[in-house]
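ligand=glycine
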Amino acid sequence: MDQAVFAKRRTELMQMIDNGVAVITTAPEQIRNGDVHYRYRPDSDFFYLSGFEEPEAVMVLIPGRVQGEYILFCREKDPDREQWNGYRTGLEGAISEYGADDAFPIDDIDDILPGLMENRDRVYCVMGRYAEFDSHLIHWYNEVRSLSSKGFHAPAGLVDAGHILNEMRLIKTGNEIRSMRRAAQVSTEAHMRAMRACQPGMHEFQVEAELEYGFRLGGSHYPAYPSIVAGGANACVLHYVENRDILRDGDLLLIDAGAEIDYYAADVTRTFPVNGRFSPAQREVYEIVLQAQFDAIDACVIGNTWNDPHEAAVRTLCQGLIDLGLLVGTIDEVIESGGYRKFYMHKTGHWLGMDVHDVGDYKVEDQWRELENGMTLTVEPGLYIGADDSIDKRFHNIGIRIEDDVLITARGADVLTRKLPKTIDDIEALMNS
Ligand code: GLY
Ligand code: MN
Ligand code: MN
């Protein structure tokens, strides 16, 4: 990605910390077992500010420092290690490729970092994410404070930079929106591949394979979260990820899965009949969820609050549940009592971005936040009807969620995943084509 984008973000952060110093680390590598690691993914905040993808790196931002404002600690080049584990950018590359003003070996950080805190008012950091790094940071901070009798002033506190970064990340800019459109596009194509492939008798993991093959074909290195491929009753378990049952003729299949592209997530759910035709009971429930989703998307407009799409969805779902005979009372009564939560127990969405459940506050000063241009969120109502004796049998084990990714714009909701079929006619046409 264009390095100017990352430089602009660093400048923006530096403008907000005055005479402070920001110290931000990337994610540690995670051991899977023995000497095998999970596939590496950098920390979202760290990547957002640096574009740097290697582990064992720490950035230091020191606004106004004449010898250089942006210091990157990273691994040195090492031909032996690179033979085994691949390319390292090294110190010169940190400067020439990633725009650091200066770069030092990560192994020297204990000696150098306390000095970079001298004469700074505060240390800005993201605490509580990586315990080991937090303890290093406190150690460096205590060290610079213990030496302050030598004639410089030491920072007077550790301050959370997370909130500043969350606010920056909440509003997406052009590059980010392009990546999110690609993540949505790749996810859309992969979901369509899975829908076309689905047949009674297949295992859930075989449909998952089609889906994730589509992600990889589209250039995604990994799903944005573990794919949920849930047939029949499994669809009523919100985060079912075992994906190992056989898909039965007459059941629905719920797939909640999204590709990550350029470290940006898509988060998409479709629910469709394993055999390609909705039964009458499945249709009845599906049409309610679909209408709730349309109504929630219509509420995704600037000036509405974060909670308005949820309230719109809940109203439509409640009316539908009353019409089906699954709830008794007036619409206001079932909303007031919360009786609908037996069938709809989650919110209608969340912020979406580098993290699938992305950063950003949902309330400001105790009020639901207003939707603004450049925010991205999911809209994902559902109904989950268990095999409860008190419920008409024909609705048993119907779990339905429909989830799209939405960008808030001045012209209304821009549904990034709109090309993925979701009406009954469009799904049946695709599956039987
Ligand atoms: N895939 C998790 C969610 O929809 O929030
Ligand atoms: Mn989802
Ligand atoms: Mn979601």
